[in-house]
Amino acid sequence: MPELRYLDALNRAHHEEMARDERVVVLGEDVGAKGGVFGVTAGLLERFGEERVIDTPLAESAIVGCAIGMAINGLVPIAEIQFADFLHPAFDQIVSEAARMRYRSNGAFGCPLVIRVPYGGAHGTALYHSQCVEAFYAHVPGLKVVAPYTPYDAKGMLKAAVRDPDPVLFLEHKRLYRIVRGEVPEEDYEVPIGPAVVRRPGKHLSVFTYGWMLHETLRAAEMVQPEGIEVEVVEIRTLRPLDKLTILRSVAKTNKALVVYEDNRFCGYGAEIAALIAEEAFEELDGPVMRLGGPDVPAVPFARSLEEAWMPDADRIAQAIRRLARY
Amino acid sequence: MTPEITAKPQHTNLGLSDGDVLRMYGYMVLARVLDERMWQLQRAGKARFVVSAPGHEGAQVAMVWPLDRERDWFVPYYRSLAACLVKGMTPTEILLSVLAKATDPSSGGRQMPGHYSSPRLRILSGSSTVGTQYPHAVGIAYAAKVRRTGEVVVVSIGEGGTSEGDWHEALNFAGVHRVPCIFCVENNRYAISVPLHKQMAVDSVAVRAAGYGMPGVSVDGCDVLEAYRVMREACERARRGEGPTLVEFRVERLSPHSSEDQQERYRSPEDLEAARRRDPLVRFGGYLRSVGLLDDTRDQALWARARREVDEATEAAERAPDPDPATLLRHVYHDPEPDRPADPVYWIPRE
Ligand SMILES: Cc1ncc(C[n+]2csc(CCOP(=O)(O)OP(=O)(O)O)c2C)c(N)n1
Question: Which residue in A26, A280, A326, B78 is deepest, having the highest Cβ count within 10 Å?
Answer without folding.
Answer: A26
